[in-house]
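RETRY 2/3 - previous attempt timed out on the joint model. Re-submitting the same 811-residue input unchanged.
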Amino acid sequence: MRLELRHIRHVYSPGTPFQVEALRGVSLSVGPGEVLGIIGGTGSGKSTLVQHMNLLLEPAGGKVLVDAVDATTLKKSELRRRVGLVFQFPEAALFAPTVWEDVAFAPRRLGLEEAEIGDRVRESLALVGADHLKDRSPFALSGGEQRRVAIAGVLAMGPEVLVLDEPTSGLDPASRQDLLRLIRTLRDTGTSVVLVSHDTDEIAEVADRICILEKGEVRAIGSPSEVFYANPDFAPATVSTVAALNETGWDIGHPVRFRETLRALAGLMEG
Amino acid sequence: MPDPASISCEDLSYAYPGEAEPALSGVGFEVRAGEYVGVVGPNGGGKSTLLRLLNGLLAAGSGTVRIAGHDPTTEPFEVRQRVGMLFQNPENGLVAPFVEDDVAFGLENLGVPRGEMRARVRGAIEAVGLAGYERREPHTLSGGEKQRVALAGLLALEPEILLLDEPTSMLDAAGRREVLDRLRGLRREKTILHVTHHLEELLDADRILVMNGGELVADVYPAQLISDPDLLARNYLVLPPLLRLASGLGLEAKKPRTPEDLAREIQHRSPRRTEAR
Amino acid sequence: MSVARSFGQFYPVASPLHALDPRAKILSTAVLLLGLFFVDSAAGLGLVAVAVVALVAVSRVPPLTFLRLLRPVAFIVALTVFFQVLFSREGETLFAWGILEIHEGGVRLGLFLGGRILLLVSAAALLTATTAPLALADGLEDLLSPLKKLRFPAHEVAMMMTIALRFIPTLYEESQKITKAQAARGADFAEGGPLSRIRTTIPILIPLTVGAFRRADELAEAMESRGYRGGEGRTRYRELRFRQRDAIALAATALVLAGAILL
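RETRY 2/3 succeeded.
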């Protein structure tokens, strides 16, 4: 599915002395089998932005388009099924007595048949590598396990777009790797993925396109090599290293991901 | 009599009530005053349990702990005057509805007279760069600011030892930098034990303890750890990308601090050196 | 974020009332609340009402804002008046229609009781509007401390108030986040009758409760590691000073009240 945001504006507490313009005309899109990485720090408006993708927040101006259809014309439940949104620290919303029941919550709300619900739960738990946890209480799991179960709870709706807000924050390195693998798997099965993160090294490894959000505006959007090489203050370590070499007159091209960068640099060492 | 070690434990073991597997077994090490020691390892490896035994939040099952010669179990108050502990989630450690009242909390507990308390609160708030935030409410602060308030609350007590339990793991990049900058300024002045998942935070530590399965599996210099792929892999440790690039290129010997350092190193080693201007 | 002003809220401005020692205000309010039950004449109530209106003026809380603080209890006042008017059979009959009879005594009693409740609530609202919550907790701890001898946990009560003040905004934000997270999973909080409403709040209440317990655990650890061991041997960062003006305020309250009771 293609999700498109056109000139989205959002104002908090309009008409009061506390009025804040959080988004000032943000446009971006993500297509099937694509990972859009959004980079933004505190105050960039990224958390406000993701809530517009399934209209949990209504824009003050602009449009959200789902396969070119205005999202406001869709039923809310339909929109939220198609655009799955995983908040930061999603494990804070786990509530059911078992993992299975928790993941079944969303498909149940969709009014699916019991057999279909079972299939969805099994598939989503398998996707996040948590099938063995299905009978456990979600509150007795480790932090990394809870995170995966919470994500499965959104995947069980069968979203065509998955929006993840800082999905790796607070996790240990092994759990982070698991999550990045999951994102690649989803992308490969045709899901559109929006990944919001402040960790540029991490985002550089999985994103097909990059958007830098700053003070509620899109500062740059495009391919990772275009965006990172033009915005050194947001660049991952790989890009910074290559840029430093290019600066001295070498021409190594514009690799971004770790492997391609290593390959390019190793070529230099061999002469 | 020589100065007692700042922190010392011997054959330390602990099992949580109702758990068959011990969370910690046979851990022993010493930290000298003014040392900066990192603690790494996978979740569930015993890092947090260790810190909690050191300041008496948990009582050792067997073995001994001494903090500047005191036993945290029998003399918790002695120990807690000397040890400040910074937690993962600053939100849940702030007690009072205003910044200055929270910073004063520990001093109130120690019974410090009001006049002295005022001065120490002011000093601690300034030390973490939050002057002007005295009347702010914690829930209106960013993660990095909350963690700095928590740090100010510890510094007001003038502890000798800081125990840091993943203090940056819930913060964004900017918040992490804020907190790490403040902590860096305290090296040497305090004995620091720093638990983290981010190896790059520990590159200039004096030593790194690696914990896994409740045991202390290595007590090494940072340079030793980052050039030992086997030790890293066995303990699910991941090098920061810059070091991974360097080691992938066979440049272990010199550890780059910045991308520019690495670029210089590559230039220096490359046979194509002459091509460049 | 704009939070609707409601009963019990602090209104942070500088005024002579705000500047009073919290203990003077708590005591005055307590005296007034108890004393009001002994005021049995309309004139007496009138005197107290005049005093309360004067105090609102002195407090620099805008009158409309003050009325809004009272709004949540307006219903109770209305209900009291309504029942007295409807069910009292005293005095002259003013109006009769079928079984419905309204008597003069009922109207009088209804207005009197309604007025009393309104004054009780106004006095309490005046206390909370002019006293910062933390000062209120400190003042209460101090006033209740003689009861420590009777094993009343004065310090613990005050500490609980402080912690509640600290965590109410945090828990409020948390509840907003959880609500949104469940909405993203298809929960609809607007639909259905009361029973299904209760059911739809379960996915919010459970994680909120679990989260609150986790926070409490972590808070307890942090407090302990910061040397907390109860009220024993503790000093206070905030100073309470009972000055002459506090004594005068207290005396004035007692005087007005005595007058009202005698009237």
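Chain A touches chain C at residues 12-13, 16, 18, 51, 54, 56, 76-77, 80-81, 84-87, 90, 92-95, 105-106, 109-110, 139, 153-154, 157 (CB under 8 Å). Closing ticket.
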